[in-house]
From TrEMBL:
The gene is lgt. Pathway: Protein modification; lipoprotein biosynthesis (diacylglyceryl transfer). It is an enzyme of class 2 (transferase). The lineage of its organism: Bacteria, Pseudomonadati, Pseudomonadota, Betaproteobacteria, Burkholderiales. InterPro entries: Lgt. It is a multi-pass membrane protein. A 1,2-diacyl-sn-glycero-3-phospho-(1'-sn-glycerol) binds at R142. This is Phosphatidylglycerol--prolipoprotein diacylglyceryl transferase. Its EC number is 2.5.1.145.
C-alpha cells in the first residue's frame, strides 16, 4: 500500500507570483516539443521535406494556444458543462487543472491547420511531423495531474503493491494518472518514435499516433473514476472511452488510406 505524497501544488513563488507544478509541467511539455523537434529535423527523410528549426518556434506558439484553449474548452464542454455554467469564472483558472486531452487534440489540429495555411504546408505533413513529439508532453501533463491529486483511480485490490490512499477519497485506489503517464504517454512514445524514424506514407505517422493513443486511453480508462459513464449495447463505457472510440476508428481509416496511396509521400504539396 502507498500513500499519495500530497506535495505542495505551488512549486515556488517569486514575490506575489506563485508558480504551480501543474503549470510547470506544461513548460516541460513545450520544452520537450522543441528538443524532440530538433532531433526529428535531423532525420534524413524529415530534412528532405524542408523542415527547419525556425518552423518549430512558430509552430509551438500556435500549438500552445491550441492546447490551452482547446484543452480547457474540452474540459468545459465534454466533462463538466453544468459545473462551469454555474462557475463561469473558473473556466479561466487553468492552474487548478482540468484540461481535456481530446479538446486539446482538436485545438492543436485547428491551430496547425492555421499554421499550415500560413506557411503553405500540407496539413497532413504537419500532423506527421509533430505527432511523435506529443506523447512525452502528454506524460508530463499527467504527472501534473498526479501532483495535484486529480483524476483518482477506481477502487484497487488491497493486495496490489501500489494501491494508494488518495486524498479526499475513501479506500485504496489505482494511481490512474501514473497509469496514463506510463501507457498513454511513455509507451506510446516508445512505439511511435522508432516507427516515425523511417519514411512512411503521408498521414501514416499521424494516424499511428491517433490509433496508439486511442487504444491506450481506452484501456487506462478502466482504472480511472469516470467523469461520466453511459451504457452501449449493455456495456458500461466511460466519457474518455466515448471520446477515444472515434479516434480509433478514424485512425484505422487513415492508416488504410495512407498505405493505399500509389505515389507515397511527395516532399511538398
Amino acid at each position: 500500500m502507498l500513500i499519495h505524497p500530497q506535495p505542495d501544488p505551488i512549486a515556488f513563488a517569486i514575490g506575489p507570483v506563485q508558480i504551480h507544478w501543474y503549470g510547470l509541467m506544461y513548460v516541460v511539455a513545450f520544452a520537450l516539443f522543441l528538443i524532440l523537434g530538433r532531433v526529428r529535423i535531423r532525420q534524413p527523410h524529415i530534412a528532405a521535406q524542408g523542415w527547419k528549426t525556425d518552423d518549430l518556434d512558430d509552430m509551438l506558439f500556435y500549438g500552445m494556444l491550441g492546447v490551452i484553449v482547446g484543452g480547457r474548452l474540452g474540459e468545459v464542454l465534454f466533462y463538466q458543462p453544468a459545473y462551469f455554467l454555474e462557475n463561469p469564472l473558473e473556466i479561466f483558472m487553468v492552474w487548478r487543472g482540468g484540461m481535456s486531452f481530446h479538446g486539446g487534440f482538436l485545438g492543436v489540429l485547428i491551430a496547425m491547420a492555421l499554421w499550415a495555411r500560413k506557411r503553405k504546408r500540407n496539413l497532413l505533413d504537419v500532423y506527421d511531423f509533430i505527432a511523435p513529439m506529443v506523447p512525452l508532453g502528454y506524460a508530463a501533463g499527467r504527472l501534473g495531474n498526479f501532483i495535484n491529486a486529480e483524476l483518482p483511480g477506481r477502487l484497487a485490490d488491497p493486495s496490489l503493491p501500489w494501491a494508494m490512499l488518495w486524498p479526499g477519497v475513501e479506500g485504496l485506489r489505482h494511481p490512474s494518472p501514473l497509469y496514463q503517464m506510463l501507457l498513454d504517454g511513455i509507451v506510446v512514445f516508445l512505439i511511435l518514435w522508432p516507427y516515425a524514424r523511417k519514411q512512411r506514407p503521408r498521414l501514416a505517422v499521424g494516424a499511428m499516433f491517433t490509433l496508439l493513443y486511442g487504444c491506450a486511453r481506452f484501456t487506462t480508462e478502466y482504472f480511472r473514476v469516470p467523469d461520466w459513464e453511459t451504457t452501449v449495447l449493455g456495456m458500461p463505457i466511460t466519457s474518455g472511452q466515448v471520446l477515444s472510440l472515434p479516434m480509433i476508428v478514424a485512425a484505422l481509416a487513415m492508416l488504410a488510406w495512407a498505405y493505399r496511396q500509389p505515389n507515397g509521400r511527395p516532399a511538398h504539396a
